[in-house]
Automatic annotation (TrEMBL), chain A:
Keywords: Iron, Iron-sulfur, Metal-binding, Oxidoreductase
EC number: 1.20.9.1
Species of the source: Parasulfitobacter algicola
Name of the protein in its database record: Arsenate reductase (Azurin) large subunit
Domain Molybdopterin oxidoreductase as annotated: residue spans: 125-599
Record field: compositional bias (Basic and acidic residues): 452-462
TrEMBL record, chain B:
Protein name: HEAT repeat domain-containing protein
Organism this protein belongs to: Parasulfitobacter algicola
Pfam family, one: HEAT_PBS
Alphabetical list of InterPro entries matching this protein: ARM-like, ARM-type_fold, PBS_lyase_HEAT
Listed SMART domains: EZ_HEAT (SM00567)
Length: 891, 711
């Protein structure tokens, strides 16, 4: 039997002049390029013609280079108001921001293929609620499914308490949905057993940024372009945020920007930077901290620090002395003061500490990271050395998951301090922030009930519950999983999966009835017996969380199927209007949550439509980086709804926080911490919030905190974990062609053919050692994946150091194996293997240790080790139809 | 790591010298905040009023979590004399959780002194009087404090709070509070309810709805005189809510049953249809399918339904959407099973029908006494769609349970499904009525095929032949999928075309039909008390497919409950103890333990690699197996350790219990102590004894305090 292969389409219709034109934005990465949807009915056979007056673009075809050309992948047929309609979905050529050239990534460029069409591979969208009976997911009515969920949910709350009711949800799936979900989980159920898709606990992803006073998404895209030196840590934006790179950073590089990457791997973006005078600091995983501090050390030893900035914007000894710069009141940061590991008394104190650290000596850091020490000196020079005329380079720092998921607290502390001494913060081209992964669609409908979490640690405020460990300890009796794979997305995936099996499929109480009452009783019995029931809410049936474990499946609608709102990586808020009918009985997440909540007896879920949800939630955006409350006020004053008002901004959107001026007009915010911004002297108009971070930093004084970043808080784990005989580092990340778990990509024939399986990049020397060539199947395996166990009774801080955990029996070593296709390339550092981060069948996270950073509560996803065993040749080795073993790091 | 080197279980002192309150409270002075937190929680859990003053002192602790835990604990034991201090905490403690707990305590104490502050907090942050945490850019703590304050004012029935509560709801820039505020107003006699009655006439639908809901939830009789007004409200949702205030014989019910809005008619019928057959009968003529579906299900339950009801249902079925169609199917089977049979056979056999309808039809057919129906269901058992297979098997099971002359036929059909092993174990014969597989179902038409149309529900139906052609070009739009199917379809010319009107494609399940069918059949067969079915299941006990064996052993557990297996048959399951599949070993063990057919194999299973198997072993240990139970406390899996601890408690061996507690401390794993000390006075006393020792390690102290804490 031959392997099916992809045949491109050959034709695509042009939209006629009277086609509906709907402004929206891409659904994928954080950049969120502006798009337009052209929609017109199939009925009647009308299509646009090649003359300008015959098509919606007003252009003669064939058109000019980079004109409004349409690819066949940008066309689809959908139902709109029950009638088949053509849709053409292309980047907006008229937009002024984000993608002003009308450019798109490979992901967004084919976004029309994600919409539901039963004639395409999207046909397996979930279409009706389902309940598992006799081991089979049976389609049922909404009432049937919701009645069961509500009854069992109420039982679990009553009998086992709120923390037995776990909710694991996406954090970004539009503000209307996240508001409804958090209102349900945090305000009404009030469970501490709650977290988002990418973390075991509801905690900050960048603790060091928060302590320094930086917002993650303070910069604007043009700041990345305007920097003269740009340090990018743990990401190549070309691979994962393509337009941010091609339309902003590349422009900077072309203007002479010195781009530095801190990564274990070279990629296309790196290659372009290097070719144009940039540099790759090719560290081995987890060694960012010594290298960052070594760069800082070279800077301060040479006196290159930005003294004026430090004088004006860094907390002095007196300012830092109480509450770690967070004031005299008790704050979430207070514990770090108590531990005394991070706090400094200002620049001189920090410098003294830095110079005393052996690992921050450039030669030592280079040895740990296995890099050329000269790169440290060069980076320091580029970032901070004043020119002969005394002017300083405009330096910015960008971080992302490869960096902050390697040594979460330590890396983010260290980079904050490096940024501060370089003067990064709140000025054009001089910023520090995250590049971002997914878009920013979170809106809280309740606060986390921290006092219900069992995680009280010495000298610090109680931290959010580790939901994975809570589940592993058998305390979670009901898991409501919303739009996440959970199992594959967390570390030590395979042992987590074994626990799911134990609690669900292996529990004796399985539904063997069609009767609603029987089903409810069975599921209650399962929960009472120490097992767990699972509700899964998603757009596709995901294995195993939906296909294997879910007792109830709620089908959700997504992009284009409901009117939603979301912000991007520069806080630009846009409306994503509904432009086609969702399949079957599918409903938006907010609706599902509202119906379930009402059946559970919760008040305040009587929303008519998604606009009502957002209008209710807008008050809760006040003070946040995407504060849009005044847009609602303006809308109501104009007799419009919030959605209508947001829609008026089109693909340009409006950049938050949004202020209302005295004349009632709205003012956007280009960048946060904008020290040059002048706010109205008369103060905020009406209820506009002049948040401190508009013009200052997120600290008590409004100035930044310089922090220590001790390597020894992490080094015990790193030293234990680092590869032993026969092992290499196993790390992972995104690639350009795939988005998240590939839920859309695996339904695109081209992408399936291009990347049919997960793969691992291996250095030629490692490959030779393992006897592996490009195209070979390899097994990646380890029998020492550390997994933190059970409830740990800790009294002293030292109880939570990895060595202590190991010594006291709180670490269990588990085994895992996944397979991949080898790609042998010198682009990857020797001793490191790199995989796509979330292939659901071959999850790289299976090889990462499930041990949280004890200060932040986050996983260090990028830190795994394992062995490589050749299994044989893959079918792709000798044919050129699928996969490619060509180098990706070419410019 | 433990300070507990040796434990001897002492009898509790008759004088109660080991006073939990004093032993625990001393740890409120620990220099470690973790221990102080645990002590505060444990004191609260004692439910001892004497703890209150100590907890009040802890409200000045430097650690915010200790203060929070102390305030939470005070919810159980605070007395009116503590109100002033608690109010001071509300004002001075910046931590939101402390404030909210303080408000709850004050409300519980009905502390009038707090009312001015609570009224103020209902409106703003009272920055001049109240300390707040500075968490710029994060959650605004006041929002939750505001809600807590409003709820407290309602609970305290503060008549003066009506105005500030109403003002809070009218703040253009505030959070939406109507649900919370109106619930509070509903609790305030006279002034609160009067305000709500006024709001029930508010121009906003949503506001009226919240107000009415609050009044209804408070179960007040004040709405009685307003029912007529509410029943004539312009908002359908208000009219629906008005039903909650009506009785079945109220004059408004008939009016609402004929409301212009179908949702109102549905709600009326749903609420009163069972008591008012006239409403149900009228509902049969309703224009709304949802109302008709409900009416039909109600009327078909009636002892003497209208004569033409079956014919009407059959007629509606032809053009109805899902909800009404399912109601028609169910009603027809109820009203006249023989007449319904051909129609239901037709529906269930048609691939183009929605899965829900086909499943409903199959379920309804189980009421039939027609052998042809059984044959049809037997054929449906082999349908490629696993959802239909399961439905058919369950329908056959119902026939067997009826125990009439058709039961043997149905039993044979299930046995055939259990025994079915095809040549390649992958392919099962298509039922006569069954359509083609998914490939055919989703195949894209070629240029010469008739054009199709997609409905709102995602159904693919034939385009109206009278409509203008929608074909842009003969080959447009072409698709990759079409090409792939053309290239790869086996016997291209033989590929069946999609019948026009093919509808939703259900989740079809695993590719291995035969195995999946057998597994489902075994599961359903086990629910029926039948020696024939039991025999068929038993014959699969050595099946080479692990999933089939897993199903057999899970079924075995149910068969044991039917008491139809003889001992040699039960013994056959013993081989499962050596199976490669952990689930099989676990179920085999459970089964043998149930029947008492335990043998030496169990001992070996105590070292099984699977923790569930080990756990079952532990649960089976007898009183004289305390050594094994104590060994199990060292197991690497928590479920095994927990099972061992519970078993030790169950066998009530004081020796074993003391040893168990010692092991728990030695291992530093004391998570299970809480359940032990709650259930056993001896264990409780022992833990207090350890707590009383001056040299007890801080880890052990913490373990004990956590154990005494709230569950």
């Amino acid at each position: 039997m031959s392997t099916p292969y992809y045949i491109p389409e050959e034709s695509v219709p042009l939209p006629p002049p009277d086609a509906d034109v709907i402004s929206t934005a891409c659904d994928y990465c954080v950049v969120a390029c502006g798009y337009k949807v052209y929609r017109w009915p199939v009925r009647g056979g009308k299509v646009g013609g090649p003359k300008a007056e015959e098509n919606a673009f007003g252009e003669d075809f064939p058109t000019y280079v980079l004109g409004p050309w349409i690819a066949p992948t940008q066309h689809n047929i959908v139902l709109h108001n029950g009638e088949p309609h053509h849709v053409i979905i292309i980047p907006d050529k008229d937009t002024e921001f984000v993608n002003p050239r009308g450019n798109s990534s490979i992901r967004g460029g084919a976004i029309a293929q994600k919409v539901y069409n039963p004639q395409t591979p999207t046909r397996d969208r979930l279409k009706s609620p389902m309940v598992r009976m006799f081991g089979v997911l049976m389609p049922v009515t909404w009432d049937f499914a919701l009645d069961i969920a509500a009854e069992v949910g109420k039982h679990v709350l009553e009998k086992h308490g709120t923390n037995a009711y776990g909710v694991k949800t996406f954090s970004y799936g539009y503000m209307e949905n996240t508001y409804a979900i958090t209102k349900y989980a945090l305000r009404n159920i009030s469970t501490a057993n709650f977290t988002f898709h990418d973390t075991p606990s509801d905690v900050s992803s960048t603790p060091g940024f928060r302590d320094a006073g930086f917002d993650n998404f303070g910069p604007s895209y043009e700041d990345w372009r305007d920097a003269e030196t740009l340090l990018m840590c743990g990401t190549d934006p070309y691979e994962s945020k393509t337009i941010l790179y091609t339309d902003w950073i590349m422009q900077g590089i072309q203007n002479g920007q010195k781009a530095i990457f801190l990564l274990p791997r070279s990629t296309a973006g790196v290659a372009y930077a290097v070719k144009n005078g940039g540099m790759l600091i090719d560290i081995q995983p987890g060694t960012d901290l010594p290298v960052v501090l070594a760069i800082a050390r070279v800077i301060v030893e040479n006196g290159w620090e930005d003294a004026e900035w430090i004088q004006n914007w860094v907390n002095s000894k007196w300012e830092s002395s109480s509450g770690f710069g967070q004031g005299t009141r008790n704050t979430p940061w207070q514990w770090r003061t108590t531990w005394g590991q991070f706090q400094t008394d200002g620049f001189e104190d920090w410098k003294e500490w830095l110079l005393a650290q052996d690992y921050a000596i450039p030669e030592n850091a280079a040895e740990i990271a296995q890099i050329d020490v000269q790169k440290i000196y060069t980076a320091a020079e580029w970032m901070a050395k004043p020119r002969e005329d005394g002017t300083r380079p405009k330096t910015s720092i960008m971080i992302e998951k490869g960096f902050y998921w390697s040594n979460n607290t330590g890396n983010t502390n260290a980079i904050s301090s490096l940024g501060i001494i370089c003067g990064c913060g709140g000025r054009p081209g001089q910023v520090i922030g995250r590049a971002g992964g997914h878009q920013r669609g979170g809106l809280r409908g309740g606060s986390y009930p921290r006092n219900k979490s069992p995680e009280k640690l010495p000298g610090r405020r109680r931290r959010a519950m580790d939901t994975d460990r809570y589940l592993m300890s058998g305390h979670t009796r009901l898991a409501h999983v919303i739009g996440t794979t959970w199992v594959q997305a967390m570390c030590g995936s395979q042992s987590l999966q074994a626990k799911f099996d134990e609690l669900t499929t292996r529990n004796p109480h399985q539904v063997q009835s069609f009767d609603k009452a029987d089903i409810i009783e069975t599921l209650k019995r399962r929960a009472d017996s120490g097992g767990m029931v699972v509700w899964d809410q998603d757009i596709y049936l995901v294995d195993p969380i939906g296909a294997r474990y879910a007792d109830i499946v709620f089908p959700a609608s997504g992009w284009g199927e409901e009117t939603f709102t979301r912000a991007n990586g520069e806080r630009r808020i846009r409306l994503y209007p509904k432009f086609y009918d969702a399949p079957g009985e599918v409903k938006p997440d907010w609706w599902i949550i509202a119906q379930l909540s009402k059946k559970m007896g919760f008040e305040g879920f009587d929303w008519k439509d998604s606009n009502e949800v957002l209008e209710e939630g807008s008050r809760h955006s006040r003070g946040s980086r995407k504060d849009f409350h005044m847009v609602k006020v303006a809308a109501h004053r104009e007799g419009k709804t919030l959605h209508e008002k947001l829609g008026e901004f089109g693909t340009n959107g409006i950049q938050g926080p949004v202020l209302m001026l005295a004349d009632g007009s709205l003012e956007e915010t280009k960048r946060l911490h904008d020290v040059n911004r002048v706010l109205p002297k008369n103060g905020p108009a009406g209820a506009t919030v002049f948040n401190k971070k508009l013009t200052h930093f997120n600290t008590q004084t409004g100035k930044c905190n310089l922090q220590k970043a001790p390597w020894d808080l992490f080094s015990s784990y790193w030293n234990w974990l680092k590869p032993r005989e026969g092992e290499i580092w196993m790390t992972s990340g995104r690639i350009n062609e795939r988005w998240q778990s590939g839920y859309d990509d695996r339904r695109r024939p081209y992408i399936v053919q291009r990347w049919p399986e997960n793969w691992i990049e291996l250095h030629p020397n490692d490959a030779a050692k393992f006897g592996v060539e490009s195209g070979d199947y390899v097994m990646l395996h380890s029998d020492r994946i550390p997994v933190q166990k059970d409830t740990i009774v800790g009294v002293e801080a030292s109880d939570f150091d990895f060595d202590s955990l190991l010594k006291n029996g709180h670490i269990e070593l588990t085994r895992a194996a996944i397979t991949a296709v080898a790609i042998v390339t010198p682009a990857i550092k020797q001793g490191v293997g790199f995989m796509d981060f979330l292939h659901t069948n071959q999850p790289a996270n299976a090889l990462s240790g499930r041990v949280v950073d004890w200060i932040s509560g986050n996983y260090n996803y990028k830190m795994g080790v394992g062995m490589v065993t050749r299994m044989g040749e893959s079918p792709y080795k000798h044919q050129f139809r699928s996969m490619s073993f060509a180098r990706r790091d070419i410019a | 790591m433990s300070a507990v080197s040796s434990i001897t279980l002492a009898k509790p002192s008759p004088t109660g010298s080991l006073d939990a309150l004093s032993l625990i409270s001393r740890h409120l002075a620990s220099d470690n905040a973790v221990i102080r937190c645990a002590a505060a929680r444990a004191l609260g859990a004692l439910n001892d009023p004497r703890a209150a003053s100590m907890l009040v002192d802890a409200l000045m602790d430097e650690d915010p979590d200790v203060r929070d835990d102390a305030m939470m604990a005070l919810r159980r034991c605070a007395a009116p004399e503590h109100a002033q201090t608690i109010l001071e905490s509300l004002l001075g403690d910046p931590v939101k959780d402390v404030k909210i707990a303080a408000i709850q305590v004050l409300a519980k104490l009905n502390a009038v002194i707090a009312i001015p502050v609570l009224r103020g907090l209902a409106l703003d942050r009272m920055e001049d009087k109240i300390a707040w945490e500075d968490q710029a850019g994060m959650w605004d703590d006041w929002l939750e404090v505001q809600i807590a304050a409003i709820a407290a004012l309602g609970k305290m029935q503060d008549r003066g709070a009506v105005e500030p509560i109403l003002a809070a709801t009218q703040d253009e820039l505030g959070q939406e509070l109507e649900d919370v505020a109106f619930a509070a107003l509903a609790q305030i006699p006279e002034t609160g309810t009067a305000a709500l009655l006024g709001i029930v006439r508010h121009p906003s639908d949503k506001t009226r709805r919240f107000a009415l809901n609050a009044l209804l939830n408070a179960k007040l009789s004040v709405l009685g005189p307003m029912i007529d007004v509410l029943a004539n409200d312009v908002s359908p949702q208000i009219r629906i809510l008005s039903l909650r205030a009506c009785s079945a014989d109220h004059g408004c019910v008939e009016q609402l049953g004929q409301d212009s809005d179908p949702q109102v008619r549905f709600a009326t019928l749903d609420r009163f249809g069972a008591q008012r057959p006239d409403l149900a009968l009228a509902g049969l003529a309703d224009t709304s399918e949802a109302v008709r579906a409900l009416a039909l299900s109600l009327v078909s339950e009636h002892p003497e339904p209208p004569k033409d009801l079956f014919s009407n249902a059959a007629a509606w079925l032809a053009g109805a959407r899902s909800e009404l169609a399912i109601a028609c199917i169910t009603a027809m089977a109820k009203l006249d099973a023989p007449r319904a049979a051909p129609v239901l056979i037709d529906i269930s056999g048609k691939p183009e029908q929605q899965a829900e309808l086909r499943i409903a039809a199959i379920a309804a057919l189980s009421a039939s006494s027609d052998p042809d129906v059984i044959q049809h269901m037997a054929a449906m058992v082999h349908n490629p769609d696993r959802q239909l297979r399961a439905a058919a098997l369950k329908a056959l099971a119902r026939v067997i349970q009826r125990d009439d002359q058709l039961a043997p036929m149905a039993e044979d059909a299930i046995i055939a499904a259990i025994n079915h092993i095809s040549a390649d174990n992958d392919v099962i014969p298509m039922a006569v009525q069954g359509g083609q597989g998914d490939l055919g179902a989703t195949r894209v038409e070629g240029p010469t095929d008739p054009r199709i149309m997609i409905t709102r529900d995602g159904d693919i139906v034939a385009e109206n032949p009278d409509a203008e052609s929608i074909v842009v070009k003969p080959d447009f739009p072409r698709s990759t999928l079409q090409h792939l199917q053309d290239q790869n379809a086996p016997g291209q010319g033989d590929t069946p075309k999609i019948p026009q009107g093919r509808r939703r494609v259900a989740i079809a399940g695993p590719d291995n039909f035969a195995t999946d069918l057998r597994i489902t059949a075994i599961g359903i067969a086990a629910s029926i008390k039948s020696t024939g079915l039991a025999k068929a299941i038993l014959e699969c006990v050595d099946d080479p497919h692990p999933d089939v064996r897993t199903a057999v052993y899970r079924a075995g557990l149910q068969l044991v409950d039917h008491h139809i297996l003889k001992q040699p048959q039960r013994r056959a399951f013993a081989k499962g103890l050596k199976d490669t599949q952990p689930q099989v070993r676990a179920d085999a063990l459970r089964m043998l333990l149930k029947t008492g057919d335990v043998d030496q194999g169990i001992i070996k299973l105590s070292a099984d690699p699977d923790p569930i198997v080990r756990m079952i072993c532990v649960q089976s240990y007898a009183v004289d197996q305390t050594c094994q139970l104590l060994d199990a406390l060292h197991d690497s899996a928590e479920i095994v350790r927990r099972a061992a601890l519970h078993r030790i408690m169950a066998i009530q061996s004081r020796f074993a219990m003391s040893k168990a507690i010692q092991i728990a401390f030695d291992m530093g794993e004391t998570a299970g102590l809480g359940s032990v000390i709650n259930a056993e006075q001896d264990a409780r006393h022992l833990c207090l004894e350890i707590l009383a020792r001056p040299n007890t390690s801080s880890h052990d102290v913490l373990s004990i305090l956590i154990a005494f804490g709230p569950r």
